[in-house]
Task: inverse folding
């Protein structure tokens, strides 16, 4: 049986209307509802199913974030993970971290926790980078399979289906491996109260980035954040001739 | 978006075959002594609204029939004014010709109060949909009566505000209609009733007089509070054209718990505990019984996040500090789980889950419509006798009905008890009424907690109000609308 590590991230709730800060330095996060990144939730569900199928013996959930990220970790524990690792950084540091820095931390955690499989969501809905899973695999020098639609673990390998533009691609990869999940692989379970209560007793290890040998000094400088331009109103024209002349004026034809 | 569309589609599928009988025929009513609408009258009225009207009974089916499809009028003319002045001109003219008028907003009322009974002219407020002013500091919004609740919420959200009321019809119901029926809803528990939240108003009397009691400040004790006449009187004393409402702060922290409970006694206990432990953050406390869960699964394929149980309770919290709120909620849930009040439950981690679980409560009315015909009752019953009414009705009706369900704002002692049959049955109707109202009256409850009297409950008004109180109502009606042209056949019992 394998040990699975699964990464979870606390992000602004997907239903919230994002507002840009007046000074253009970022988006408003204070007093805004946050929850677990939807793809991370799917990754946790996939990990828990591996345990239910008796393929995994233990699931370690890990997160990198401020103290509020502890809630996200607790949700993962309530869904069925066995213990947690919380890498403490403050919100400002988290906002400035790049996928490369995150990947280095994730790789180190996979090593220290002796994971045989590392699961993640395909991307986080705030940054939308979609790079962490691939970078982590490269750092670990492990095989990777991203955007998973299905996962079948076969001992020292796994058969996966990946969602790609043209449809589904089936691969077989050796394990240990880094896997990232896409939307349709499963429907995450709800954390029920008895499990939420049990989760409070599960162990969470507090870790500093320095313990993982990673420097969190910013390497990326965000110059400006702005809302997309407001879509200009359309114009209704009387007849086809007017349409043609307007298109010509606009240089479209 | 997708969910709302499918809700409309599913509803139309079940109700499109049911064209109700004309109210006047079904209840053998006699038309009041009103003037008849001549072609000249019609033309003049349409000119008053710059052509924004609809003519012909066939074109007006959607406006002559209510949402529940239990009443049907025969109006030939619908007008859509855009300003208070137009409303005034319409009423002045109708008053002079003794023509009856029905004020209509979103037509989502559940007691047949928003549609004509005979050929009353429909004055529809849909085009009076401007939000005139939002004051982010005082939290007051001034808006025309035709503003839809959901749209008001969208605009208010930009200023971190929200309307103090919330109900399932929010996508269609309008402010004027909400105020004229003193609509309650899911959050009355926390934010109070419209009677307290409406600060000012502009309304038009039956003879076209515009009554300006507009005020946007919280405190104004200057003389008799005239606007209260128009709140809850269901369009029978005047037509509201504009109102100022005290909004609530949009909470940054919203939590939702869906809990399974074994017996109604546990629902009661859970409510006391919630009030004590959650205190100021409690914003909604709703229940649905097992037969509701069965109905939701059968008719809408909606399933709860936990296994079915005898009762389900939805608890919502609103606050400004998510850490504080979640801590309180968690401690509360742990304690009610440990002492056995609650057998299972879930907490919604994100807004999508919260929205989905709310549907289990908010789409109950729609879900029942799929059975065919719904006998809908909305009563206030003291909590110690609350669920007894459901068991009594079930026993009384037995196999004659498809379903008898109970759900609602248990936190406000407000029970929604609904009975369904495949098609209207006079036998079932007579088994239910007046028995259900008399039962409620005997426990000193209210025969209509929030839906109002409308057309459907006029003859039962005396079961919740004394003869003297009703006499006072008639006095007021005669003083404000002596010709009885505003929404006739509604609210007050027909003499």
Result:
């Amino acid at each position: 049986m394998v040990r699975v590590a699964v990464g979870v991230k606390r992000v602004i709730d997907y239903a919230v209307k994002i507002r840009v800060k007046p000074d253009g330095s970022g988006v408003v996060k204070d007093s805004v509802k946050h929850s677990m990144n939807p793809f991370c939730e799917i990754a946790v569900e996939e990990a828990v199913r591996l345990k239910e199928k008796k393929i995994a013996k233990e699931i370690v959930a890990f997160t990198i974030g401020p103290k509020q990220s502890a809630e996200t970790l607790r949700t993962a524990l309530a869904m069925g993970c066995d213990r947690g690792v919380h890498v403490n950084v403050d919100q400002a540091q988290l906002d400035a971290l790049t996928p490369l820095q995150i990947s280095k931390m994730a790789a180190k955690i996979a090593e220290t926790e002796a994971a045989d499989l590392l699961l993640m969501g395909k991307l986080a809905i705030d940054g939308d980078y979609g790079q962490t899973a691939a970078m982590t695999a490269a750092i670990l020098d492990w095989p990777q399979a991203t955007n998973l639609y299905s996962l079948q673990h076969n001992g020292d390998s796994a058969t996966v289906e990946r969602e790609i533009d043209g449809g589904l691609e089936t691969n077989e990869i050796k394990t240990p491996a880094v896997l990232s999940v896409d939307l349709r692989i499963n429907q995450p379970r709800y954390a029920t109260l008895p499990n939420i209560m049990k989760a409070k007793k599960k162990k969470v290890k507090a870790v500093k980035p320095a313990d993982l040998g990673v420097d969190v000094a910013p390497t990326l400088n965000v110059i400006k954040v702005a809302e997309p331009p407001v879509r200009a109103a359309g114009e209704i024209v009387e007849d086809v001739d007017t349409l043609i002349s307007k298109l010509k004026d606009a240089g479209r034809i | 978006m997708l969910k709302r569309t499918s809700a409309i589609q599913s509803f139309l599928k079940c109700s499109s075959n049911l064209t109700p009988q004309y109210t006047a025929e079904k209840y053998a009513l006699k038309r009041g002594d009103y003037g008849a609408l001549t072609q000249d009258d019609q033309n003049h009225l349409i000119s008053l609204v710059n052509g924004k009207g609809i003519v012909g009974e066939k074109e007006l089916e959607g406006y002559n029939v209510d949402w529940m499809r239990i009443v049907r009028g025969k109006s030939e003319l619908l007008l859509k004014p855009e300003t208070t002045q137009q409303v005034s001109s319409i009423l002045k003219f109708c008053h002079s010709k003794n023509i009856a008028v029905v004020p209509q907003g979103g037509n989502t009322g559940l007691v047949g109060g928003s549609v004509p009974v005979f050929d009353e002219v429909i004055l529809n407020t849909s085009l009076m949909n401007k939000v005139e002013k939002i004051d982010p500091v005082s939290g007051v919004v001034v808006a025309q009566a035709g503003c839809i609740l959901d749209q008001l919420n969208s605009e208010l959200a930009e200023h971190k505000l929200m309307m103090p009321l919330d109900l399932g019809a929010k996508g269609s119901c309008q402010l004027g209609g909400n105020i004229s029926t003193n609509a309650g809803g899911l959050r009355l528990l926390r934010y109070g009733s419209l009677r307290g939240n409406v600060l000012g108003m502009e309304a038009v009397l039956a003879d076209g007089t515009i009554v300006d009691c507009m005020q946007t400040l919280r405190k104004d004790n200057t003389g008799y509070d005239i606007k209260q006449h128009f709140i809850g009187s269901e369009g029978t004393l005047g037509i509201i054209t504009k109102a100022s409402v005290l909004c609530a702060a949009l909470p940054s922290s919203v939590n939702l718990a869906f809990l399974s409970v074994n017996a109604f006694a546990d629902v009661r206990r859970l409510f006391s505990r919630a009030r004590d432990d959650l205190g100021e953050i409690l914003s909604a406390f709703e229940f649905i019984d097992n037969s509701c869960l069965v109905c939701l699964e059968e008719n809408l394929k909606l399933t709860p996040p936990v296994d079915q149980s005898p009762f389900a309770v939805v608890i919502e919290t609103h606050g400004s500090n998510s850490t504080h709120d979640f801590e309180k909620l968690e401690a509360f849930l742990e304690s009610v789980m440990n002492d056995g009040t609650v057998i299972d439950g879930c907490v919604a981690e994100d807004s999508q889950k919260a929205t989905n679980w709310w549907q289990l409560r908010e789409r109950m009315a729609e879900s029942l419509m799929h059975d065919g015909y719904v006998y809908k009752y909305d009563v206030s019953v003291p909590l110690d006798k609350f669920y007894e009414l459901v068991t009594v009705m079930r026993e009384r009706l037995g196999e004659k009905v498809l379903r008898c369900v109970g759900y609602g704002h248990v936190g406000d002692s407000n029970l929604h008890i609904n009975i369904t049959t495949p098609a209207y049955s006079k036998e079932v109707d007579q088994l239910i009424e007046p028995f259900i109202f008399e039962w409620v009256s005997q426990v000193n409850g209210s025969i209509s907690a929030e839906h109002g009297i409308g057309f459907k409950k006029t003859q039962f008004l005396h079961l919740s109000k004394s003869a003297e109180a009703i006499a006072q109502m008639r006095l007021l009606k005669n003083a404000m609308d002596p010709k009885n042209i505003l929404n006739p056949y509604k609210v007050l019992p027909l003499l």
Q: What stands out?
A: The first strand of chain A starts at residue 2 and ends at 7. Residues 13 and 162 of chain A are 26 Å apart (CA to CA). The mean pLDDT of chain A is 94. Chain A touches chain B through 23 residues (CB under 8 Å).
